[in-house]
Design brief:
The protein is an alpha/beta fold. The chain contains 13 helices and 15 strands. A hairpin with a 2-residue loop joins strand 11 and strand 12. Helix content is about 35%, strand content about 20%. Helix 4 packs parallel to helix 5 and helix 5 runs antiparallel to helix 13.
Length: about 375
């Protein structure tokens, strides 16, 4: 049995708790948070089987021999310190994004994991574990469905990676987040847009050379903290690839999450997930069910797959797929996007300024 500690008992903590408890070889031994742990355990009918605690370091110090790994689903501004504590006590760690707020903090955590001979931190980029996105990745990189069909066209298209020429990520939340969430999070770039940047770079196996962001805040609580609630981001790559992110905090209808990947030989589309695909046609037009209400429902399978992956990493059966280079480069891109949003100007992405860890950091994963 793999004994895990869960940190955080909010909406993500609740989701991961269910995945852990339903896993055939994992068990949640502790839930750690500074508030509401007892209420959380009562809600999940687990007061007799799971221990409540308020301090992560005390748990690892006093009962570390009986703990195999830690799942962090706390407020994003606490992730860096909590990951660091886990690594210092020699525990593999899964953490929701972002793992830290600066590149130097990311470098520190990966270095510490290496020094402790531990797996690198497992970062919660759940789209990578969603069956639809996994299928798109396989179609692109294993079956080469976007590549040009003949040698002559291949020569014309030789600079692309797997035939990809353009990619568009659409991410629209159904409604504005709570004021508490707004105050506890870092900002929209590191709490939300990070997913769009990661999936674009993951799918294309490239990082952008320049970015431009047009952004605005309509919702007063978001504007008050100098954050944004809607934006367009364009990303340009040295290969000639173009990418765009269409993002907002309030769609007005449901959770709108799509990805279009266009290449020489066609397009791959990851569409919205719905309760059913029945379309009713009549004199009033056509109707179908709304997309899933929110990301918790849309990515149920992905979150379950993440926990299963982490359990196998703890067991030594798998390795962490999100690399140091990928994580730090995504953070560098996010910093450039935020700078563009706040200055209104295009920004060249300077990977060298942070010290490269790979000679291919600009072009390929």
């Amino acid at each position: 049995m793999v004994n895990l500690v869960l940190v955080g008992c909010g909406r993500m903590g609740s989701l991961h708790f269910k995945s852990i408890q339903n896993h055939p070889v994992a068990k949640c031994k502790y839930v750690v948070d500074i508030v509401d742990v007892d209420q959380f355990l009562r809600k999940h009918d687990a007061t007799s089987t799971v221990l409540a605690a308020s301090d992560l370091e005390s748990v690892l110090k006093n009962d570390g021999d009986n703990i195999d790994g830690v799942v962090i689903a706390s407020s994003s501004n606490m992730h860096y310190e909590q990951i660091k504590v886990c690594l210092q006590y020699n525990k593999p760690v899964f953490c929701e994004k972002p793992m830290a707020s600066t590149v130097s903090e990311i470098d520190e955590l990966y270095t510490l994991a290496q020094q402790k001979n531990l797996p690198p931190p497992f970062v919660g980029f759940q789209r990578r574990f969603d069956p639809s996105f996994q299928s798109a990745y396989a179609q692109i990189h294993e079956q080469n469905v976007l590549c040009s069909p003949d040698e002559k066209a291949q020569q014309l298209n030789a600079s692309t990676v797997a035939g990809i020429e353009k990619i568009v990520s659409i991410s629209r939340d159904p409604t504005y987040p709570s004021v508490d969430y707004i105050s506890d999070s870092i900002n929209c770039f590191y709490d939300s847009i990070i997913h769009d940047v990661d999936i674009i770079c993951y799918m294309t196996k490239q990082f952008p050379s320049s970015v431009y962001c047009a952004a605005h805040a309509h919702f007063a609580p978001i504007k008050h903290v100098q954050d944004f609630d809607r934006m367009f981001v364009t990303l340009q790559f040295e290969s000639g690839l173009l990418a765009m992110i269409d993002w907002c905090r309030h769609s007005g209808f449901s959770y709108d999450q799509r990805l279009n990947i266009l290449g020489y030989n066609g397009m791959i589309e990851v569409t919205n997930d719905r309760d059913n695909l029945c379309v009713v046609h009549n004199n009033d037009g056509a109707t179908l069910s709304k997309p899933k209400e929110y990301f918790l429902e849309r990515y149920t399978n992905a979150y379950r797959n993440e926990i299963d992956e982490f359990v196998q990493i703890v067991q030594g059966k798998k390795t962490v797929k999100t690399t140091h280079e990928q994580m730090r480069n995504v953070m560098i891109v996010l910093a450039a996007i935020e700078k563009s949003a706040r200055t209104g100007k295009p920004v060249n992405v300077d990977y060298d300024a942070h010290g490269r860890i790979s000679s291919v950091a600009k072009s390929k994963l």
